[in-house]
Design brief:
heterodimer; A: 79 residues; mainly alpha; B: 591 residues; 5-stranded mixed beta sheet
Chain lengths: 79, 591
């Protein structure tokens, strides 16, 4: 009888631990995915702004000296 | 995960195996033949009480029922009829719960028969319960005995017709089942009742039937009993002489088989018969024989009692020893159980701790991997953000610089133009000077723009520079149609090279200045721009077939000085060769 109670307690403990570990890992995974997504989004925005600047600087014509056209400030960037 | 489940399954199988083994032990103890077990009844009761507890511990219901029925038997031998009845009823309840109704009927029947002399009403009640269950379910095996025993109850209660009815019913089933041992008993029972009813012919008929059957099976004791009973029938009819041969037939058998009670009874009956026949000698003789057997039985009984007491004394001693051994065994058993429980508990705890450790370790590893990836991304973001902000800041400063200084320089040009128009009487020398200042200021604006662009642009590819030079030459072609232009790049030139924006800008401006000079001052018909690569340097040569100029006697103008200054800025050299056949400007730039 005692052995049966022991077995049941152990089995339930193992089951509880497995459920806890599964839930915890799933929560960690979700948080990680959220963080990564936010960081990647930020990086993409920055890359976009850098590329925008580069593309405009490419438009500088050596014979026309059209500097006014190629220096386009981006007000969204907080300095 | 799979390994963990496999382990748990093995634990379950182990426990199941242990359980099956315990059931076997319980069943084995329940099969002990109580009547033939030569140890004190208290010990027998103790054994079955322990067995009952073991069966309860493992939840083995059939084992519990068996233990209760055996306890009932053991208690009845002790004379503890109340406990006996309670135990048998517990067994019946369990069999009933398990749906084993044949056993229920059988135990009710036995219970009733067992208490026929103690409590006749209860005996009748239990017997009827057993009979009803057996009849409802047509349990013929149980019914043949129940009917027989029920008939005996009726006979005790002087309900002779009823007794005959049930004996007859029992007999019919025995005949149907061909129960050769049971049939003569039923016939004898019927014969006994007929005798009590003074239906002597019927009584004799059934005793004879019983006798014939027993003769076939050579059942000596049964044969002897039947001979005596037949004699008794004649005695009841007061046919004394007819009774004598039957008693004499029974006597040798009972003597041979040492059936002392029957022998004693036969002698007694013979003494009675001869007494009735006024044969005093024979009556005395058989009475003496009767007394001898009676004494002998008494003596045997005394001896048996002494032997029994002896056995009891010996067994008490042995019992004490057994009790001591049992106590030791129980202690050892308890110790082993404690150890097993401890080992089992420790293993379970170790398993839980191991699993917990493994899961925590894995979780930490996962966290580390996630943090590392997040950290890498944060670093990359910080880098690109800083770079982006720096570039943006530089761009805004550049724009402010261009707007402010550019506007001021434009104001200077405008002021000079106003001066020239406002003062019509200025000398030619002053006019030229003002023109020079205006032209210089314009050049400053252009250079300011180039510098600002180069400051913001990090680099320029060879291909981009090549396209811009080709565009310029195409433009020059359109401006001066009588001049032939050619632009060549040798095959060994590394076209994948990337110049810094300052270097690219200066190379372009040097080519532009050289081509403009050739057009403006040399009256060239053909202008050629060649780019080649030697010893890790770019060789950019601009040649024309114009009138040339004397380098020793000609003061170098702003244009040529600017070209040299630009070449120095990018770590290159500029060589100018001129003759009457044309001019060559060679720019060497390190890669």
């Amino acid at each position: 009888m005692l052995q049966l109670i022991f077995t049941i307690v152990i089995l339930f403990s193992i089951l509880g631990i497995l459920i806890w570990a599964y839930t915890e890992n799933r929560e960690l995974g979700k948080t990680h995915t959220r963080n990564i997504s936010a960081l990647e989004n930020e990086i993409a925005i920055n890359y976009g702004q850098v590329n925008f600047r580069k593309q405009h600087l490419e438009k500088y014509q050596f014979m026309q000296y059209n500097l006014q056209e190629v220096l386009v400030p981006q007000p969204k960037i907080k300095l | 995960m799979y390994r963990i489940l496999l382990f748990l399954f093995s634990v379950y199988l182990g426990l199941s195996g242990l359980n099956a083994q315990n059931k076997q032990t319980v069943d084995s103890i329940n099969k002990i033949y109580v009547q033939g077990f030569n140890i004190p009844q208290d010990s027998i009761v103790a054994i079955f009480l322990k067995n009952l507890q073991d069966a309860k511990d493992i939840g083995y219901e059939l084992g519990r029922a068996g233990a209760y029925s055996q306890l009932g038997l053991a208690y009845s031998y002790q004379g503890k009829y109340e406990e006996s009845t309670k135990s048998v009823i517990e067994a019946i309840k369990i069999y009933d719960k398990l749906g084993q109704l044949d056993k229920v009927a059988d135990f009710y029947g036995e219970l009733g028969y067992g208490m026929k002399y103690r409590d006749f009403d209860k005996a009748l009640y239990y017997m009827q319960k057993g009979k009803t269950i057996a009849e409802e379910n047509n349990f013929e095996n149980e019914l043949k005995d129940i009917y027989n025993n029920y008939g005996i109850l009726k006979e005790i209660n002087k309900e002779l017709d009823s007794a005959l009815f049930y004996f007859e019913k029992g007999l019919q089933i025995k005949l149907k089942l061909n129960d050769t041992i049971g049939i003569p008993y039923s016939w004898s029972n019927l014969a006994g009742v007929y005798g009590l009813q003074e239906n002597f012919s019927k009584s004799r008929e059934y005793f004879n039937k019983s006798l014939q059957q027993r003769l076939v099976w050579a059942d000596s004791l049964g044969i002897a009993e039947n001979y005596t009973q037949l004699g008794e029938v004649f005695m009841a009819e007061k046919k004394w002489k007819d009774a004598i041969p039957f008693m004499h037939k029974s006597l040798p058998i009972s003597l041979k088989k040492q059936y002392q009670n029957l022998t004693q009874y036969n002698y007694k009956m013979l003494s009675e018969i001869y007494k009735q026949l006024n044969n005093a000698d024979s009556a005395l003789y058989y009475f003496e024989q009767y007394s001898t057997v009676k004494d002998s039985i008494h003596s045997i009984k005394v001896q048996e009692s002494i032997a029994a007491l002896n056995i009891e004394f010996e067994t008490e001693k042995k019992q004490n020893e057994i009790l001591q051994q049992r106590t030791q065994l129980a202690e050892k058993d308890l110790e082993v159980r404690r150890k097993n429980t401890f080992i089992f508990g420790s293993l379970g705890l170790a398993l839980i701790l191991g699993l917990l450790g493994y899961l925590l370790y894995n979780q930490q590893k996962l966290k580390n991997r996630q943090l590392q990836k997040e950290s890498e991304l944060r670093t990359a973001l910080a880098k690109i953000e800083t770079q982006n902000k720096l570039q943006e800041q530089r761009l805004r400063i550049s724009r402010d610089l261009h707007d402010n200084i550019g506007a001021q320089l434009t104001f200077i040009i405008s002021s000079i133009d106003n001066l020239k128009f406002g003062f019509t009487d200025i000398s030619e020398k002053l006019g030229n000077k003002l023109n020079n200042i205006s032209s210089f200021t314009q050049q400053t604006i252009y250079e300011l723009r180039d510098t600002i662009w180069a400051m913001n642009k990090e680099n320029i590819t060879f291909e981009d520079l090549q396209a811009r030079i080709a565009n310029f030459i195409e433009h020059a072609k359109n401006a001066s149609e009588k001049t032939d232009f050619s632009f060549n790049i040798e095959q060994n030139v590394d076209e994948s090279h990337i110049f810094s924006s300052v270097a690219g800008m200066n190379i372009y401006r040097i080519i532009q200045e050289a081509v403009n000079n050739a057009l403006k001052y040399a009256s060239a018909d053909e202008i050629e721009v060649n780019i080649s690569e030697k010893e890790g340097k770019y060789y950019i040569e601009i040649t024309d077939d114009g009138i040339g100029f004397d380098q020793d006697n000609t003061e170098l103008g702003n244009g040529l000085n600017n070209m040299k200054k630009r070449a120095r800025e990018i770590g290159g050299t500029l060589q100018i060769k001129s003759s009457k056949k044309g001019t060559s400007v060679l720019l060497k730039v390190p890669k």
